[in-house]
Amino acid sequence: MSMIHVNTKVNGDEAEFLCDPRETLLDVLRDQLNLTGSKEGCGTGDCGACSVTLDGRLVCSCLVLAVEAEGHEIGTVEGIAEGETLHPLQQKFIEYAALQCGICTPGILVAAKSLLEKNPDPTESEVRYWLAGNLCRCTGYDKIIRAVMDTAKDMREAS
Amino acid sequence: MALDDQKGGFKFIGTRPNRPDGLDKVTGRARFGADAHASGMLHAAILRSPHAHARIKKIDTSRAEAAKGVKAIVTRADFTQSLQPAPGMKGENWNILENVMAGDTALYDGHAVAAVAATSALAAKDALKLIEVEYEPLPHVTDVDKAMQADAPVIREGVAAGTVPKGLHPNVAGYHESGHGDVEAGFAEADLVVEDHFVTEATHQGYIEPHACLAQLGADGKGELWCCTQGHWNVQKVCAALLDLETSQLRVTASEIGGGFGGKTAVFIEPVALALSRKANRPVKLVMSRAEVFRATGPTSSTSMDVKIGMKKDGTITAAQGVFRLQGGAFPGAPADMTAMCAFAPYALKNVHQIGYDVMTNRPKQAAYRAPGSPMAAFGVESVIDELCNQLGLDPLDTRLKNASHEGTKASYGPKFQRIGLVETLEAAKAHPHYTAPLKPGQGRGISCGFWFNHGGETAVSLALSEDGTVQLAVGTPDIGGSRASMALMAAEVLGVPYDNIRVIIADTASLGYNEISHGSRVTYASGLATIKAAEDAVKKLCARAAAKWGIPEDAVKWEDGCAVPSGPNAGEFPPMPIAEITRKMGATGGPICGHFEATPEGAGVSFATHIVDSEVDPETGKTSVVRYTVVQDAGKAIHPTYVEGQFQGGAAQGIGWALNEEYIYGEDGRLQNPLFLDYRIPVASDLPMIDTVIVEVPNPGHPYGVRGVGETSICPPLAAIANAVSAAAGVRMRQLPMSPPRILEALEKQAGDG
Amino acid sequence: MVEVNLWSGLRPLANGEEMVEVEADTVGGLLDALVEQHPGLQEAIDAGVSVAVDGRIIASALDEPIRPDSEVFLMQRLKGG
């Protein structure tokens, strides 16, 4: 099968690659662009560990074909911090111990950041439903929800 | 609490610093099993049986071998030929080999039969389709009760343990019977005897990270393996046995691990990747898909259980009896013994008798799942106690307090308990506002106790001091839930240096002595104990250097707040000598200073928990919600309380999934019907409430700081506590898990029909 | 002599005895003495047993001391998650 040439932007940097038309965006991010922060937990869009943004919209990168990235902008967990300054969500997840094994953390951070950009003052239920597509098996979500709510509060107070 | 009487004022223990691997994990830098890459690396894929039970008549790999990009194909012939079937532990490696790659028979849907390594993951998957396997389907059985019946197909001969009584079906691979007193006499003394039958379905540990590894093995017998595992020394040992390698020639490095819960104590893909690498003479990466994880790795046992308990009107339990049948897949090893031994452990019983059956079926080999065997037993036992309390009009907490095991009680499994904290958890639950909070209409409250043994195991730890007085600590137990933070806290406590001055790593198999798997809630207990001892070893050496400098005897120097100081007025007057002052000159005063400790600590204290749950049932749809949840558990001593809370909350959440949603569903054809997270639905954020926690601290006499393992006990009470809450809310006793909406509706309709 | 309590499942392998008396001052010595008296116990012991000595559950260490008046129970060895 012939390979397809794709031009895209990842975390603000131009990126190009050759891919098999069957390969997913997640495959290419991990195997070709060496951005292994996005994880494959299921490959069927059920666990959210591969969450990225595509032109600012939250998607499961395992459900996006790599060729669909042509001409679009991708955001991954590797792009959340600015230089050495962590995003407030990242800082708060460490403080709250909102992770145990950490495999779901990249996807949850990408999803939570996307929530706070749309809704800076979410209720607990809104956070829970927004993150319902991101499975965590370790924490019972308690500390994750608290970390997101508290980050939202800090960011509101800072703005 | 009481620990402060035992050992005064901790400086670091009990504080809540940020975890050392936090930054890596929030930035995506942390490297998990599938995140490794090697030059010249191939990608592998495994062909799996579509049949529940079938003779493998022929495997033709010739077309696949000729396919583009294919570099190696392995079948059973590429593994050791020296292992033989045998019962019990003697047959353990044989059983692992049989599971890792099928021999002449495929034993379950998803059983590996061949594997391919190719230049890309897609090429490897494409090549699988070109492997021709000729199967002869055999009769199969996937249900535990049916597998014990006389007409059930025999799955494998010659693996049953010698302790299995004669006359049972060959599918019964193990048998446990224990107890004391006279249960019949006890039942005769009771005012009320309740006997009931309970069923639980197999559930998966459900770690979000599928099994993954990167293997390299040369013709010289030297190998390197990177994998996500709970125990890399075990992986090393098993791979060596399955591939005829010398153990020490295979160096295994544990990656960051994306959840395990017991499921990554077993070995599945690592020997396959190594065999492919040896054949292709290239590094091979092998990553399971989610469907492979469900079909071919460790679910817990499904069970069929009978529980009978007698009680007096005042709540005294007069006798208890249980029969526990555990379905363990196509291999021996279901934890029927643990189920039986844990079942009645929370209660001081004069008369108790328990039997466990380990039963084989055509399903994947069960693997340990957080306190393996105990949660199911608690479901049966605590449901019957709840029913007795309901019928006798007794308070369920007071009744449990009345019968609770305490120090000196003869345990249901035989010996006397040492210091334990069950009563303290019950009292804390009773005092918690949750227990007396009003319920809304349609809601029900349930409680349950739970018990787990905990474990010690082989442990080796090494600690090296740097010239600037900072500390490198190497432990051998993979960190699943933040244990590096706990290790650093314990080392800081002994050395008196800041927490941030300690760098903790999980060492590879070449760098430390054998470390048993991270299981049995042993890490904070055993690696923690070894860390304390290793730090004390370093302190002794630091004091010796100070003594030499001061010209006084070594025993005239003690260690305080990170400094050597004279031990008393007779030792002489010297200003405190800080650690950095000693380490800066250590090269010229005797050489590098390290501390180490190797042992098999045998003082893991057992632990208990009490959970309180409120639930709500929608009578129209049968949907259940957990509206409030409180975990009360004895941690002995919480080293890092936030991570102890995390273990409590995680265990409760997994229990909620097990109780309400999760189950392996097999069709008539013996195939797993729901091998995806879409259909095997684990709890999501919107399914759960906040989970409150109460840490009770009744110190374990077997640990210097009183630690008891906390990881597993947290999943023991939820099944029963939730079942009791749902039964109260629905007004009908629920005897089968999961209590999914169709089952609740069925129970409600049956009750309406009966009424 | 040390009194060793067997779980019921083991009794058929030890002439039906519930309690066996052996001469031993360590866990390892106790297991050896048990097998010497009742060779039928060998397989079960090889399959993995813990020995509870005065309530402490000894999973591995054969050198753990035992006193003549110790309370000793054989138990099946734990496999955790």
Secondary structure elements and pairings:
The complex is a heterotrimer of chains A (159), B (755) and C (81).
Chain A lengths: L3 E7 L2 E7 L5 H8 L18 E4 L2 E4 L12 E3 L12 H8 L9 H14 L5 H7 L11 H17 L1
Parallel strand pairs in A: 1-5
Antiparallel strand pairs in A: 1-2, 3-4, 3-5
Helix pairs in contact in A: 2-5
Chain B lengths: L2 H4 L15 H6 L14 E7 L5 E7 L1 H4 L4 E5 L17 H9 L4 E2 L5 E7 L2 H8 L3 E6 L6 H4 L24 E9 L2 H7 L2 E9 L11 E6 L5 E5 L4 H12 L6 E5 L15 H11 L3 E4 L2 H7 L5 E10 L5 E11 L8 H8 L8 E8 L14 H19 L3 H8 L18 H10 L1 H4 L6 E10 L6 E7 L5 E5 L7 H13 L6 E5 L16 H28 L6 E4 L2 E4 L10 E2 H6 L9 E6 L7 E11 L6 E11 L6 H20 L30 E6 L21 H13 L10 H14 L1
Parallel strand pairs in B: 1-12, 10-11, 14-15, 18-19, 25-26
Antiparallel strand pairs in B: 1-5, 2-4, 2-6, 3-5, 7-15, 8-13, 9-10, 9-12, 13-14, 16-24, 17-18, 17-23, 20-21, 21-22, 24-25
Helix pairs in contact in B: 8-9, 11-12, 12-20, 13-14, 16-17, 19-20
Chain C lengths: L1 E4 L13 E4 L4 H11 L4 H5 L2 E5 L2 E3 L13 E5 L5
Parallel strand pairs in C: 1-5
Antiparallel strand pairs in C: 1-2, 3-4, 3-5
Search tags:
heterotrimer, B: 755 residues, alpha+beta, Aldehyde Oxidoreductase, domain 4, Aldehyde Oxidoreductase, domain 3, 3 domains, seven-stranded mixed β-sheet, five-stranded mixed β-sheet, 26 strands, globular, C: 81 residues, Ubiquitin-like (UB roll), 26% strand
Describe the structure.
Chain A: This is Carbon-monoxide dehydrogenase small subunit. Chain A: InterPro entries: 2Fe-2S-bd, 2Fe-2S-bd_dom_sf, 2Fe-2S_ferredoxin-like_sf, 2Fe-2S_ferredoxin-type, 2Fe2S_fd_BS, Beta-grasp_dom_sf, Diverse_Oxidoreductases. Chain A: One of its GO terms (molecular function) is oxidoreductase activity. Chain A: Keywords: 2Fe-2S, Iron, Iron-sulfur, Metal-binding, Oxidoreductase. Chain A: It comes from Salinihabitans flavidus. The complex is a heterotrimer of chains A (159), B (755) and C (81). Chain A has 159 residues and is α+β, with helices and mostly antiparallel strands. Chain A folds into two domains: 76 residues, Beta-grasp domain (Ubiquitin-like (UB roll), Roll), CATH 3.10.20.30; 71 residues, DNA polymerase, domain 1 (Orthogonal Bundle). In chain A, strand 3 and strand 4 form a beta hairpin. The model of chain A has no long low-confidence stretch (mean pLDDT 97). Chain B has 21 helices and 26 strands. In chain B, the strands form six sheets. A seven-stranded mixed beta sheet of chain B has the order 3-5-1-12-9-10-11, sandwiched between helices. In chain B, a hairpin with a 5-residue loop joins strand 9 and strand 10. In chain B, helix 11 runs parallel beside helix 12 and helix 16 packs parallel to helix 17. The longest helix of chain B is centred in the C-terminal third of the chain and has 28 residues. The radius of gyration of chain B is 27 Å and the shape is globular. The N terminus of chain B is likely disordered. With 81 residues, chain C is of the alpha+beta class. Chain C has one domain: Ubiquitin-like (UB roll). In chain C, 20% of the residues lie in helices and 26% in strands. Chain C is built from two helices and five strands. Chain C has a five-stranded mixed beta sheet. Chain C is globular, with a radius of gyration of 11 Å. The chains are: A alpha+beta (159), B alpha+beta (755), C alpha+beta (81). At the A-B interface, helix 1, helix 2, helix 3, helix 4 and helix 5 of A face helix 2 and helix 19 of B.
